Prior knowledge:
By secondary structure, the protein is an alpha+beta fold. It has 2 domains: 11-243, ATPase, nucleotide binding domain (Nucleotidyltransferase, domain 5); 256-499, Nucleotidyltransferase, domain 5 (2-Layer Sandwich). Helix content is 35%, strand content 22%. The chain is built from 17 helices and 23 strands. It has helices at residues 56-74, 117-124, 129-133, 143-150, 164-173, 198-203, 226-232, 246-254, 308-313, 319-326, 364-388, 407-417, 429-441, 445-452, 463-468, 470-482, 488-499; strands at 11-18, 22-29, 34-41, 45-46, 52-54, 78-86, 91-97, 100-104, 108-109, 160-163, 179-180, 214-215, 220-223, 239-241, 262-266, 270-274, 288-291, 297-303, 335-337, 356-358, 396-400, 420-424, 455-459. A 7-stranded mixed β-sheet has the order 17-18-16-15-21-22-23, with helices on both faces. The longest helix has 25 residues, at 364-388. It is globular, with a radius of gyration of 22 Å.
Amino acid sequence: MDERPEGPSRRAWLGIDVGTQSVRALVVGERGAVLGAGSAALTSRRGPDGRHEQDPESWWDALAVATREALGQAGSPALAAMACCATSGTVLLVEQDGDDPARPLTPGLMYDDGRAVAQARLVREQTVPAWQAAGLLPQRSWALPKAMWLLRSGTRPGARLAHQSDFITSRLIGTPSATDTSHALKTGVDPVRAQWPVDALAALGLAVERLPDVVRPGTLLGRVCPTAEERTGIPAGVPVVAGMTDGCAAQLAAGVLDPGRWSFVVGTTTVLKGVTETVLRDPTGVLYSHRSPDGYWWPGGASSTGAGLLTREFDSSAFARLERLAAEREPADCVTYPLTEVGERFPFHHPEASRVTLGTPRDDADWFAAILQGVAFAQRLSLDHVRGLGAEVSDEVTVAGGATRSAYWTQLQADILGRAVVVPRTAEGAVGMAVLAASATAGDLRSAAARMVGIARVHQPRQQNTRRFAEPYARLVTELAKRGWIGDELLATALAGTAS
């Protein structure tokens, strides 16, 4: 827990992050100190037919455990407001039943549930002006096909669609909750007008009366009801503010709010998020943009590269030793694009892409070094992709996630990217939701972030090392182009960067 003194004020905000593996709750003070933290585990059901489900009641049970633990640690804070983030694209059907505003009628179909194949094909064939205006190209992973699959013929008349976050907020406020444009983005919402494109959805057989109302993130949804207080320990009357997806919440917690700023979350996979003044249009469809509460656009994408390959190939007890040896292999004898599984989503889309390795590692340390370097090469290619689309990329990037526990790997990223790497103090989604709640009740988004978000450390690039990695990076992107995985324009942008 962050022990920085908060001064005499006990005002605080509650942020909740409903993830895939757990629910996390944090009580955050005026200046960003974490006053109390709680969590509870979640479990999933997977099947050979592509299903990935969770029991919605387990979300509510876990939230109650997490919030009571966090509030207990915090003592008696004066909660000014709260907000909740959840996984992007997780949906279910609910109905109002007596005192329950969101009685689940189905399991929660998780973001990567793959059963709505026919519906995804129909969605990809649609031309929707609202999506085009926002630079959105539908993908199979969108929530919209899942919504269509759930609401196919024979569904109960009173059933309505809810996102994972909507289910939670409905229970909190005691009445059916509106959804926010961030969680609803992949369900086909118009993020510019904050409304459903009624005609387009009707053409897909999706009646708008089955969908929740839409508001922008940061909008007051209601107040915690007495029933929710009894279950969760959150005092009745606390304002509940519309949240954003977990990726956007992490971006808020990292303080990445200005145009030209970009952030990576490097864990099992790697997520890029950034800020632009106008919508960034990507003809390849691998990048999509959320609309921020202050009117900017937040483009981003998720790569299947990351630390997943490290944990698969090496015992974590050997990491410290291998890192010391990796420092002597800059660059490694081989270069790799470190996919753990088949398929890549960003910075290029190729469902059959697999790990590429050029050359042969001389030993385990060399292979370890190649993976660390390969993740940073994928990050560099991601920045080259957005630069090629016309986006501004500043001289510093923010990096969060499990990879930042390694000072060596973080410095390596700075060297390969040729940019300063800023490591935020706490880049948790629950912190981001506390910042959003504070922006709705105590100033705007920028001033709330300025008070509550801090920097842990900064790694400056070593230019000699940056030049050293130019050749293996050029070799890797040239190979990706030969395989047809990236186009000539991205190749040209990437190679031009190696010549500077």
